[in-house]
Amino acid sequence: MDPVACRDHLDKLIAEESNTLDQLLTLLDREHELLVANDVEALDRATQARQNCIGTLLRIEDERKSLCRALNVPADVQGLDRILAWCDPGKQLRRRWKELGERANRCRTANDRNGALVTARLNRVQGMLDVVTGRAGQPKVYGRQGAFQNQPRTGRVLFSV
Question: DSSP letter at 148?
């Protein structure tokens, strides 16, 4: 592969990834609104759209790794840096690549925010279930098979003879 073809391929991948990350950020913001509104049905639909974006990002990453292997460089950041130095001496792609990292960080922050909200709600529901089942205040432990193990109730068992 010559440097111009490589640069064109990376340019295409970076543009597609940039658009996909923008879509993902929009979806994550919408997902947060739906979580706050507790709109479960719309949240299910939004989750599918988010998963489609993740699938696209994984495909782009696979293409990038394939390019690295084809050029016999490691399929990691250092390998991509070597490719960029070879095919993009003007460093235009390198700047756009850095912007992708910033977009990805914004997506990670939005995803973490959504995850924290979901975790807080799950903890609240678990607390309410513990009260209903009488396990409030008991330690949460797992048995040898990995299943939740009920702690024995304190108190005496009375037998009649």
Answer: B
Look up residue 152 and give its DSSP letter.
P
Provide the token pair at 112.
């973490």
Q: Are 103 and 18 in contact (CB under 8 A)?
A: yes
CA torsion 114→115→120→121, rounded to 10°? Answer: 70
Q: Which residues of 113-126 are buried (b: 16+ CB within 10 A; e: fewer)?
A: ebeeeeeeeeeeee
Contact 20, 60 (CB under 8 A): yes
Give the integer Cα–Cα distance in Å for 51 and 40. Answer: 16
pTM, 2 dp: 0.77
How wide is the angle at C-alpha 69 spanned by C-alphas 63 and 79, nearest 5°?
90
Instruction: Rounding to the nearest 10 degrees, give the CA dihedral for residues 81, 83, 86, 87.
Output: -120
Taking only the tens place, the pLDDT of each residue in 51-82 is 999 999 999 999 999 999 999 999 998 999 99
Q: Give me the helix-helix angle, 77-87 and 92-133, nearest 10°.
A: 160
Kindly state the average pLDDT of the residues 106-127: 90
